[in-house]
Automatic annotation (TrEMBL):
It comes from the Bacteria. GO terms for biological process: carbohydrate derivative metabolic process. Residues 123-262 form the SIS domain. PROSITE patterns: HTH_LACI_1, HTH_RPIR, SIS. Pfam families: HTH_6, SIS. The keyword Acetylation does not apply. Residues 3-79 form the HTH rpiR-type domain. This is Transcriptional regulator. It comes from Salinicola socius. One of its GO terms (molecular function) is DNA binding.
Length: 285
């Protein structure tokens, strides 16, 4: 497997039967315990039958439970100290807060190591010379789009952010060559966003996709920028993909600032000075 076993589990989650998903979720929550279990123990803890455990292992591309445990043990031995965050009703504040931080750190390290630097360079180059930059996203990705607009307008770029499907559709229809869209999606499967991306490409704009590598959106954009974060959708699972997308936007913004040269530094200093009158002095008692 090119990805970690945890990544494979999350990728395959939606393709597994419901009973097999119970096994996958138990493994994600309790990897150290599973290594020491017999197949009967895992079946009992996951509340499934032993044949279900075998089917789960085969769905993951392994001959059986022993091979699965071997792969799991090898992965844990490589120092993957951060497990997928899950929360039990009895967890203390310290336990679930550490779990959230650890899970997010693991995700960010994995995204950092997997980012396509060549694709990043092409995206930065396109954004640096764009006539107009539009950021599209829905839900949590809409918040990322708004944050991106806040960063990029300070770089002397005409930019907007839209999280409404009608506004996105109208925006995409008015684009032309030299314009850039950044379409942001954790799943890459949002129907309206895919439609807006298609419209923008047809209009001649460059469309950058911050989305999973093997997703419908990635196949429609001009320049896919894969951010692969597989998340369980159970209650209490944090949206670490949002943090990963925010950091990727930061990378793009810094790259564009470097690309556009020293004049941007003067612009950013002027913006900083303009905020002075809005802040209370530290000397005020």
């Amino acid at each position: 497997m090119s990805r970690s076993l945890f990544d494979e589990l999350r990728v395959h989650m939606d393709r597994l039967r419901r009973s097999e998903q119970k096994v996958a979720r138990f493994v994600l929550r309790n990897p150290e315990e599973v290594i020491l279990m017999r197949i009967t123990d895992l079946a009992s803890e996951a509340q499934v039958s032993e044949p279900t455990v075998v089917r789960f292992c085969r769905a993951m591309g392994m001959a059986g439970f022993q091979e699965f445990k071997l792969k799991l043990a090898q992965m844990m031995a490589k120092g993957s100290q951060y497990a997928q965050f899950t929360m039990n009703d009895g967890d203390s504040v310290a336990e679930f807060s550490h779990g959230i931080f650890d899970g997010t750190i693991e995700t960010l390290e994995r995204v950092r190591d997997c980012l396509d630097n060549e694709a990043l360079g092409k995206a930065i180059a396109a954004l640096a010379v764009a006539n107009r930059v539009e950021f599209y996203g829905y839900g949590a990705s809409g918040i990322v789009a708004a944050d991106a607009q806040h960063k990029f307008f300070r770089l002397q770029i005409h930019t907007s952010a839209y999280s409404d499907p009608h506004l996105q559709a109208m925006s995409a229809a008015t684009l032309k060559a030299g314009d850039v869209v950044v379409a942001i999606s954790q799943t890459g499967r949002t129907r309206a966003l895919i439609a807006s991306a298609k419209t923008a490409v047809k209009a001649g704009a460059t469309v950058i996709g911050l989305c999973p590598s093997d997703s419908p959106l990635a196949r429609e954009v001009t320049l896919p920028l894969p951010v692969d974060v597989q998340e369980d959708t159970e209650v209490y699972i944090p949206m670490t993909s949002r943090i990963a997308h925010l950091l990727t936007i930061d990378v793009l913004a810094v790259g564009v600032a470097k690309n556009r040269g020293p004049q941007i530094t003067d612009q950013l200093k002027a913006i900083k000075r303009s905020l002075g009158s809005l802040r209370v002095s530290n000397n005020v008692s």
